[in-house]
C-alpha cells in the first residue's frame, strides 16, 4: 500500500518535472523565434524560417541573418552557460548567494579579459582562453585559501567577496589606462552586452557548453546528495573532494567563456537557480531548468534593454536592476522558513 | 597569529601606554605628511617645498608642491573619517567584517550622487554631500535590515553577502545611468574609482562641517558603542536603549562615510583594516579606539596616496585602488582567522 503510494508519488513528480522542463524549452524556442521576428521592424515568421534555412530573402536576410540571429544565439548560449555554472556553485555551496558573480569567479574572468584586451591587445579566442585560465586560477586560489578546518562553504563565500573586491579595483585601474574612445565600449562590455555580437563568437561558447556542461550534468546525482551536507554525502558514498573539483572546473569554464563573449551579465548566474527552484520545487535536479531559465533571462533582458526604453541599455543593466528586488525577496523569504533554497 | 579576538580583548594597557601609541601615530602622520608633500612625479628642491607650502606658485615646482598640500590634507581627513566610520560599524553590528565598502554603503552613496548628476544636473559640492549622505543612510538601513533577517540575526556572512549583492546591483544601475549620458561618463568614472588627486581647499571646506559633526557624534557615542558591543541582551540589561544608541552611532558613521564618498568617490577597506589594527594597539575601549582609529585611518590613506604616486610612475594609481589591494588580503586574513562557528 505505502510502496504503491510512494511509487505513484515518484511517477507524478517525474511527470511534473518533465512537463516543466518541456515548457521551459518551449519558452526558450518561442523567445528565439520572437526576437528573430520583432525588432525595429517586424519580419514575418515565414521569412525568418527561410533565412534560417539559408535562403536569400530580400530585406530580411541582413536584419535577421546578420543582426538578430547572432545576437539571440549568443544570448541563449551565454544564458545557458551562466545559468548552469551559477546553479552548480549554488548547489555545491548550499547557498543561493554563493553564485559566481558574487564570490569573485566572474570578476577573475573579467579582469583577465580586460587585461588581455587593454594591455596585451589580444582578440577573440585568445581572450577567452586567457579568461578561463585566470578564472580557474582565481577559483583555485579562493578554494585553497578557504581550506582550513571544516565548513569550507561559508569561508569560500567570504573569501570570494574579498578577492572579488581586489580584482574589481584592478579592473578599474586597467580601465583608467584605456584610451578614452574605448571607455564607453569597455563600460558597456563590463555591464554585460550583446551589442555587435558576431555569429563566430557563438562557436567558443557552444564548444564550452559541450566540453564543460556535459561533465557537470554527469555530476547531477552527486550534487543532489551534496545538498545534504558534506559529511552525509561522504557517508552516502560521494567522493566530496572529487565532485567539488569537477564542479568548480566545469562551472568556471562555462562562466569564463560566456563572460568573454558577452561580458559579465549581472546577476544571471545568481537569479537562475532560485527561479528554477521556485518552478521545479523538489521534483528533480535544478541543473537543466536553471540553464534554461538563464537563457530566458538573457534573451528577455536583452530584448527589454533594446526596445523597452528610449536609450538602448546593455542586457546586464536590465538583469542587474532585476536582481536587486529579487535579492530582497530571497532574504525576506529565508527569514520565514530558515533556509535559502 | 594564535590570538583570538577574546584574548585581544583582555589586553588593557595602562592609560599612558595608549597615550603613547596615540603620540606615536601623530608622529607617523607628521612624517607621512612631509613625505606626501615632497614625493611626487616631479622631484623638487628644498627651497621650492618651503615656498610652495607657504603658498607661492611662481615656478612649476612650487606650483606642484602647492597642489600636494590640499591633497595631503584631504587624504588625512578622508582617512580619519573612514577609520572612524569603520570602528562604529564594526562596533554596533558586532561584526569583524563591517566596512562601508563591504556593506555596500559607499556604493549607495555613489549611486545617489550619480543619479543627482545625471537627472538633476547637480553641480555644487554641498548638494553632492547631502545626496551622498542620504544614499548612504538608505543603503545602510537596507543592507542591515535584510542582513539581520532570519535565523541568528545579523551574522557577518549574511551582512557581507547582502552588502556584496547590493553593490553589484548598484554598480549595474550606475553603469546604466552613465551609458545613457555620454557627456558625463568620463567625469563619473574618475570620481567613481576613488581618489584625492583633484583636491582643493575650497572643496575640503565644504565637506568639513559634515565630517566634523559626524566625528563629534562618533566620539560622543563611544560609551554607547562599548555597551552595544556586549550584545543586545546585556546592553538592554544595563539600561541602554538599544535602538536609539545604535541609530545615533550609525548616523555618525553614515555622515562620515557619505561625506567622504561625495568628495573622494568610494574608497574601500580603510574602515575594515584600521579598527582591527588599532584594537591590537589600544584594546576594545571605544573611548580610546575611536580617536586612535581616526589617526591610523589618516595615516593609512596618506601612505596609500604616496604609494599610488610611486608605483606606476610617471602616472598615478588612484588611492581607492591601493586601499583595495592592501585591504582585500587583510579581509581574507580576518576571514581565515575567525572560528567557523563565528562566521
UniProtKB/TrEMBL annotation, chain A:
It is a multi-pass membrane protein. Its main location: membrane. Keywords: Cell membrane, Membrane, Transmembrane, Transmembrane helix, Transport. The keyword Cell membrane applies. One of its GO terms (molecular function) is transmembrane transporter activity. GO terms for biological process: siderophore-iron import into cell. CDD domains: TM_ABC_iron-siderophores_like (cd06550). One of its GO terms (cellular component) is plasma membrane. Pfam families: FecCD. The keyword Nucleotidyltransferase does not apply. It is found in: Cell membrane. The chain crosses the membrane at residues 21-42, 72-93, 102-121, 127-145, 157-181, 201-218, 245-268, 280-301, 313-332. PANTHER family: FERRIC ENTEROBACTIN TRANSPORT SYSTEM PERMEASE PROTEIN, FERRIC ENTEROBACTIN TRANSPORT SYSTEM PERMEASE PROTEIN FEPG. Belongs to the binding-protein-dependent transport system permease family. FecCD subfamily. This is Iron chelate uptake ABC transporter family permease subunit.
UniProtKB/TrEMBL annotation, chain B:
Belongs to the binding-protein-dependent transport system permease family. FecCD subfamily. This is Iron ABC transporter permease. It comes from Aliiroseovarius halocynthiae. Its main location: membrane. GO terms for cellular component: plasma membrane. The chain crosses the membrane at residues 20-39, 72-89, 101-120, 127-147, 159-179, 250-276, 288-307, 319-336. GO terms for molecular function: transmembrane transporter activity. It comes from the Bacteria.
Amino acid at each position: 500500500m505505502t510502496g504503491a503510494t510512494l511509487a505513484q508519488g515518484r511517477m507524478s513528480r517525474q511527470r511534473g518535472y518533465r512537463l516543466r522542463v518541456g515548457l521551459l524549452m518551449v519558452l526558450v524556442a518561442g523567445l528565439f523565434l520572437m526576437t528573430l521576428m520583432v525588432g525595429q521592424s517586424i519580419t514575418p515568421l515565414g521569412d525568418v524560417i527561410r533565412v534560417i534555412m539559408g535562403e536569400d530573402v530580400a530585406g530580411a536576410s541582413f536584419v535577421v541573418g546578420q543582426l538578430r540571429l547572432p545576437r539571440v544565439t549568443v544570448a541563449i548560449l551565454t544564458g545557458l552557460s551562466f545559468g548552469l555554472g551559477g546553479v552548480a556553485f549554488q548547489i555545491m555551496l548550499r547557498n543561493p548567494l554563493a553564485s559566481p558573480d558574487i564570490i569573485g569567479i566572474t570578476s577573475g574572468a573579467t579582469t583577465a579579459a580586460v587585461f588581455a584586451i587593454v594591455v596585451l591587445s589580444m582578440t577573440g579566442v585568445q581572450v577567452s582562453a586567457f579568461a578561463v585560465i585566470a578564472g580557474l586560477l582565481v577559483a583555485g586560489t579562493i578554494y585553497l585559501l578557504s581550506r582550513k578546518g571544516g565548513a569550507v562553504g561559508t569561508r569560500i563565500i567570504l573569501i570570494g567577496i574579498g578577492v572579488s573586491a581586489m580584482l574589481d579595483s584592478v579592473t578599474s585601474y586597467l580601465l583608467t589606462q584605456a584610451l578614452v574612445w574605448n571607455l564607453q565600449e569597455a563600460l558597456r562590455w563590463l555591464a554585460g552586452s550583446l551589442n555587435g555580437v558576431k555569429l563566430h563568437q557563438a562557436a567558443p561558447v557552444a564548444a564550452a557548453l559541450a566540453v564543460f556542461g556535459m561533465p557537470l550534468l554527469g555530476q547531477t546525482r552527486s550534487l543532489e546528495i551534496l545538498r545534504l551536507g558534506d559529511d552525509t554525502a561522504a557517508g552516502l558514498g560521494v567522493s566530496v573532494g572529487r565532485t567539488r573539483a569537477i564542479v568548480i572546473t566545469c562551472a568556471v569554464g562555462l562562466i569564463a567563456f560566456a563572460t568573454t563573449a558577452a561580458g559579465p551579465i549581472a546577476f544571471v548566474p545568481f537569479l537562475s537557480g532560485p527561479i528554477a527552484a521556485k518552478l521545479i520545487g523538489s521534483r528533480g535536479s535544478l541543473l537543466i531548468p536553471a540553464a534554461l531559465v538563464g537563457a530566458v533571462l538573457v534573451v528577455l533582458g536583452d530584448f527589454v534593454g533594446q526596445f523597452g526604453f528610449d536609450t538602448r541599455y546593455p542586457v546586464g543593466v536590465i538583469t542587474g536592476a532585476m536582481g536587486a528586488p529579487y535579492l530582497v525577496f530571497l532574504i525576506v523569504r529565508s527569514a520565514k522558513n530558515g533556509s535559502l533554497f | 597569529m594564535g590570538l583570538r579576538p577574546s584574548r585581544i580583548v583582555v589586553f588593557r594597557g595602562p592609560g599612558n601606554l595608549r597615550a603613547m601609541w596615540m603620540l606615536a601615530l601623530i608622529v607617523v602622520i607628521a612624517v607621512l605628511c612631509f613625505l606626501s608633500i615632497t614625493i611626487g612625479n616631479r622631484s623638487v628642491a628644498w627651497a621650492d617645498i618651503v615656498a610652495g607650502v607657504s603658498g607661492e606658485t611662481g615656478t612649476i615646482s612650487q606650483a606642484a608642491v602647492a597642489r600636494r598640500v590640499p591633497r595631503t590634507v584631504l587624504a588625512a581627513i578622508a582617512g580619519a573619517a573612514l577609520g572612524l566610520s569603520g570602528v562604529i560599524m564594526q562596533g554596533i553590528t558586532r561584526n569583524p567584517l563591517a566596512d562601508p565598502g563591504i556593506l555596500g554603503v559607499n556604493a549607495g552613496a555613489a549611486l545617489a550622487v550619480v543619479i543627482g548628476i545625471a537627472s538633476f544636473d547637480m553641480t555644487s559640492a554641498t548638494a553632492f554631500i547631502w545626496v551622498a549622505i542620504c544614499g548612504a543612510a538608505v543603503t545602510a538601513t537596507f543592507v542591515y535590515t535584510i542582513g539581520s533577517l532570519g535565523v541568528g540575526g545579523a551574522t557577518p556572512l549574511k551582512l557581507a553577502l547582502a552588502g556584496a549583492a547590493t553593490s553589484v546591483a548598484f554598480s549595474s544601475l550606475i553603469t546604466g545611468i552613465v551609458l545613457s549620458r555620454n557627456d558625463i561618463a568620463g567625469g563619473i568614472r574618475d570620481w567613481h574609482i576613488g581618489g584625492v588627486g583633484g583636491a582643493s581647499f575650497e572643496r575640503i571646506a565644504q565637506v568639513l562641517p559634515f565630517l566634523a559633526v559626524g566625528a563629534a557624534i562618533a566620539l560622543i557615542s563611544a560609551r554607547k558603542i562599548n555597551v552595544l558591543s556586549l550584545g543586545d541582551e546585556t546592553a538592554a540589561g544595563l539600561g541602554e536603549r538599544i535602538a536609539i544608541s545604535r541609530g545615533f552611532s550609525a548616523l555618525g558613521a553614515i555622515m562620515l562615510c557619505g561625506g567622504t564618498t561625495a568628495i573622494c568617490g568610494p574608497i574601500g577597506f580603510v574602515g575594515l583594516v584600521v579598527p582591527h589594527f588599532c584594537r591590537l594597539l589600544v584594546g576594545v575601549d571605544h573611548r580610546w579606539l575611536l580617536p586612535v582609529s581616526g589617526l591610523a585611518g589618516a595615516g593609512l590613506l596618506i601612505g596609500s596616496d604616496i604609494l599610488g604616486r610611486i608605483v606606476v610612475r610617471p602616472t598615478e594609481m588612484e588611492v581607492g585602488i591601493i586601499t583595495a589591494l592592501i585591504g582585500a588580503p587583510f579581509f581574507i586574513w580576518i576571514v581565515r582567522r575567525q572560528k567557523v562557528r563565528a562566521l
